[in-house]
Amino acid sequence: NAGVTQTPKFQVLKTGQSMTLQCAQDMNHNSMYWYRQDPGMGLRLIYYSASEGTTDKGEVPNGYNVSRLNKREFSLRLESAAPSQTSVYFCASSGERQGVYEQYFGPGTRLTVT
Amino acid sequence: GIQVEQSPPDLILQEGANSTLRCNFSDSVNNLQWFHQNPWGQLINLFYIPSGTKQNGRLSATTVATERYSLLYISSSQTTDSGVYFCAVRAGYGNKLVFGAGTILRVKS
Predict the structure, then answer these.
(1) Looking at the partner chain, which of A42, A48, A101 has a beta carbon nearest the beta carbon of B101?
(2) Sign of the C-alpha dihedral, residues A8, A12, A13, A15?
(3) How many interface pairs between A and B have CB atoms less than 8 angstroms apart?
(4) What ranges make up the beta strands (E) of chain B?
(5) Nearest Cα to Cα of residue A1 among A23, A22, A28, A21
(6) In this model, does residue B92 exceed pLDDT 70?
(7) Residue A24: what are its φ and ψ, rounded to 5°?
(8) pLDDT band, residue A111 (cuts 50/70/90)
(9) What is the mean pLDDT of residues B24-52?
(10) Are A33 and A97 in contact (CB under 8 A)?
(11) What residues contact B11, with CB distance under 8 A and at least 6 apart?
(12) What is the distance in angstroms between the Cα of A80 and the nearest Cα belonging to chain B?
């Protein structure tokens, strides 16, 4: 049981390049999330998917797109990377179990845009 | 939207000391989680505690939902407790979490 996995772990992009961050979970959770964490700050929600087939914007969605490929996988795409998108990106998932909706996080992707 | 404030922002402890971290939130919540982000950046679930008190080893947490705060107690601190402690609360549809800015804890040997 791997929990939440993310690829890649590290990435360096040039301004204007595109890339997709991959996330998968094996806990049969309905909901999945993408957050970013900037130095000295808490996590901010970029996009989330409450269930397979649905996606919604979070607090900081500009410059990003997402795809909920199936129940297990939720990807985040940067179409034209900008230096302001340098950050650590975390994927998370949550599901109900005996009335508890606990959220679990992946290991993160450290992205640098030059 | 809901606001989450954590205090203190920074804390330095000598190994073996006890500490209390506080999380205040601006509205009613039905989910509250405490996380520890270790020096390698990994987010570790500590407690799911929308109300009441829980204990896990040297750590315990109490949430008083009616007064809109939660406390995380760390007893007999160890250097491995160092890192950032985040409080996060659930707001609305889809179990979205809103995070506080965190408390940076440094435990010195």
Answers:
(1) A42
(2) positive
(3) 53
(4) 4-7, 10-14, 19-25, 32-37, 43-48, 52-56, 59-64, 69-74, 83-90, 97-99, 103-108
(5) A28
(6) no
(7) -140, 150
(8) very high
(9) 93
(10) no
(11) B19, B21, B103, B104, B105, B106
(12) 26
Q: What percent of chain A has pLDDT over 70?
A: 100
Given a cut of 90, whether residue A39 has pLDDT beyond it is: no
Q: Is residue B18 classed exposed, middle or buried when 0-12, 13-18 and 19+ CB atoms within 10 A define those classes? A: exposed
Whole-angstrom distance, CA of residue A48 vs CA of residue A93:
9
A5 CB burial (10 A radius; 0-12, 13-18, 19+): middle
Looking at the complex, does the CB of residue A44 fall below 8 Å from at least one CB of chain B? yes
Residue in this structure with the two tokens 């791997």, named with its chain if needed: A2
The sign of the torsion formed by the CA atoms of A5, A26, A73, B30 equals: negative
Residue A67, both tokens = 């795809």
